[in-house]
Amino acid sequence: MARPRASRTLENAARRFGYRHVAGVDEVGRGCLAGPVVAAAVILKADCYVAGVADSKVVPAPERERLADAIRRAAVCWHVAVVEPAEIDRLNIHRASLEAMRQAIMALVPLPGFVLVDGFKVPGLLMAQRAVTGGDRRCTSVAAASILAKVARDRLMCDLHSRDPRYGFDRHKGYCTPEHLDAVNRHGYSEAHRRSFRPPTLFDRMAD
Predict the structure, then answer these.
(1) How far is Cα 36 from Cα 169, in angstroms, rounded to an integer?
(2) Whole-model pTM?
(3) What are 91-139's pLDDT values in tens digits?
(4) In the chain, which end has fewer C-beta atoms inside a 10 angstrom radius, N or C?
(5) Are 151 and 60 in contact, with CB atoms under 8 Å apart?
(6) Parent domain of 28
(7) Domains of the chain: total
């Protein structure tokens, strides 16, 4: 089955209203037990089309790497922001995700005039924005941001694995897999884990 392809319809509509630089922003790692939440923001050149851009969740890892390179070449500018587990615990994951997206947007040079955000509006922005439900499936710039964020986060999780291989971060990237839960049961939480996240117990898993 062909995967859904994002389009530039919303970006082009914003440009017709006079916004020259339209950014897309998305985050990854929201539902993980370990590792940071990572957001990316990107302004794509209006005349530069990157074939194959789609929601990072439906793009295989080797293709994500190739697309990330193509996206960076096709970008006016881009930025990746990271919020670490301790800050996630302090803020809560929703606020931490919004903060990562805000940081990524505000680091763009030039700043965008309009921002398309996957899911939720970002507090504290100085520019116009639109929250788009399913933005990583619908909007090319948001899908591109999701790919940049996913590639960056996967690399961070592989680096964490190289420093502490007990948990298998290079394979599950901090998500709640049986392998990860078994490692937590054996070794407890590491510095990379989010203390505010309660992993499912054996009873919870049996009830699913």
Answers:
(1) 12
(2) 0.93
(3) 999 999 999 999 999 999 999 999 999 999 999 998 999 999 999 999 9
(4) N
(5) no
(6) 9-207
(7) 1
